[in-house]
Amino acid sequence: MLRFITADRLVDHPRLADSMFRDRAAQFRDRLGWEVTVDARGHERDAYDECGPIYAIWQRPDGRHGGSMRFLPTTGPVMVNDHFGHLTDQPLSAPDLWECTRFCLAPGAGLAISAALMQGAVTTGLGVGARRLVGVFDARMVRIYRRLAWQPRVLASCGSGRQAISLGLWQVMPHVPHALARPSGVAPDLARHWWRRGGLGGAGGDGRARPALAPGIVPAMAPDPAPRAA
Description:
By secondary structure, the chain is α+β, with helices and mostly antiparallel strands. The protein contains 6 helices and 9 strands, in the order βαββαβαβαββααββ. The chain has helices spanning 14-31, 79-82, 111-128, 142-147, 176-184, 188-197, and strands at residues 2-6, 54-59, 65-73, 97-105, 132-138, 153-158, 165-171, 200-203, 209-211. InterPro entries: Acyl_CoA_acyltransferase (IPR016181), Autoind_synthase (IPR001690).
């Protein structure tokens, strides 16, 4: 199932959070060779995990991480402006433009989980009122996005081999969840249901998502089935 969790609520899901940050270390440091920070617990974290992001996380039946993405509004600190300004003519900042980063898959996760995360991305975009998502990603991901029903427009690329990266822009449109339903096995209404069960409301005046419930109140989340054909 997809979990939509704000950074301050990760503490309520210790096993899921621990396995997500460990899988991020395994992917970005060990497999891709990126220069990232990994702490003594084996967690890959950076400053943007402290900026109040929303995470879309695929949770396996055993409660562990299967895949995840991270979302922040471009009206605040984001990687594309702070670290990848050389890929753009000017800073990318607008209330309806959110950044998606740290697309991570657990070892053995297949295309269906990749597609489910993309379903989570468009559900997040629609939920916070974003019309576009922007992200810098490993350039080899282009072939995976191409196999799915929602690929970005590549705005710029640089580097080569394992160090090749691309800047992409996704359009958030109402038809996208339906296009993603077949490859992900997650129907749009099920993704919206999981979004609501996460306690997330619309975007606030500064563009950051606001929990719909008071702090400390988490709606009960009954076990959901694995992705199924829409």
